[in-house]
Design a protein that fits this description.
With 306 residues, this protein is α/β, with parallel strands linked by helices. The chain is built from nine helices and twelve strands. It is 41% helix and 12% strand.
Length: 306
């Protein structure tokens, strides 16, 4: 009798712990996913893990909404969360704070190893400050690799490979990766078309974060160090006018919508503002694919109207 009661109790617990439906509304097999906690260092990696995991994993990106993950400094209790994670997804060499703390080597995965030959090396840029992250420079290796959709696709594949440690069903993972790469390929094709329409016409970037976008899609860009919420001083405007005398751009890509006073002054110079969010941090609304599609639509509309 005791053995029968024990077996019944174990059966009841097994039924009560079955897996919930995934984000698409389809029932997941109970054995399809293992419990797993994944920590990431930026939003693209978090999105790829969330998309591929389909709700079966706990994906953490503990960066405050107002901070850039590349320059954020976590508190010790947050570092502890990374140390205890089953998997830590890294963006590449020199990115973020991870080399300055002790993290378990066996849980770290550098998702950039498939395209190290495509890194864009930079001279150390001027030190400047914006937002709560404080003083920093944009130098050594450009890190926004995911703005090249072909590299983003390779990065997604690296995330999928890493998730195999936590996911039992490789077939489902392969299907999700194929769907994600198809979406990225569509965005890639649209950006290639926009670059072809521009045909090497000069453009401006509000910040030096668009190197891989320029390289992949043939954008003839020159970067400034302007912030969307800070009105440039007279020296900044004079410097812009000097640039325009040699680089007569009519489009300027911004990380976020600049204040009206900036946009108005740019419009006087014949420059159209195009918001192209780099997506290092989690967006206020939408996801990586939706925001990137909006980026492409805004850029395509601007280049078509030239």
């Amino acid at each position: 009798m005791l053995r029968q009661l024990t077996a019944l109790l174990l059966l009841t617990l097994s039924v009560g712990c079955s897996q919930p439906p995934d984000q698409q509304g389809d029932a997941q097999p109970a054995a399809a996913l293992q419990e797993g906690i994944v920590y990431t260092v930026n939003y693209p990696l978090a999105f790829f893990a969330e998309y591929l995991g389909q709700g079966g994993l706990r994906v953490e990106l503990p960066v405050p909404a107002e901070e850039d993950p590349a320059y954020w400094q976590p508190q010790p209790e947050i570092v502890l969360g990374y140390q205890q994670a089953d998997l830590i997804l890294l963006n590449g060499p020199g990115y973020a704070w991870v080399n300055r703390v002790s993290l378990p080597a066996n849980t770290q995965v550098d998702t950039s190893t498939a395209y190290t030959g495509h890194f864009i090396e930079l001279d150390t840029g001027p030190v400047h400050s914006h937002g709560p992250e404080g003083d920093h420079s944009h130098g050594e290796i450009a890190f926004t690799t995911w703005l090249d959709m072909s590299l983003a696709s390779l990065q997604a594949a690296a995330v999928a490979q890493a998730l195999q440690k936590l996911m039992v069903d490789p077939q489902e993972l392969e299907q999700r990766l194929a769907a994600l790469q198809s979406e990225l390929s569509s965005i890639d094709a649209a950006l290639i078309e926009a670059g072809q329409i521009l045909d090497n016409a000069p453009v401006l970037f509000s910040h030096p974060v668009y190197q891989y976008l320029s390289d992949r899609y043939g954008l003839n860009g020159q970067a400034l160090h302007w912030e969307p919420e800070i009105y440039p001083d007279e020296a900044d405007w004079n410097a812009l006018d000097k640039i325009l005398s040699e680089h007569p751009a009519t489009i300027m890509l911004w990380e976020d919508q600049p204040i009206p006073e900036i946009e108005s002054e740019l419009r006087k110079r014949g420059i159209v503002v195009v918001v192209f969010k780099p997506l290092g941090r989690r967006p206020d609304s939408g996801d990586f694919l939706a925001v990137m599609e909006t980026n492409v639509q805004l850029l395509s509309a601007a280049v078509t109207a030239m």
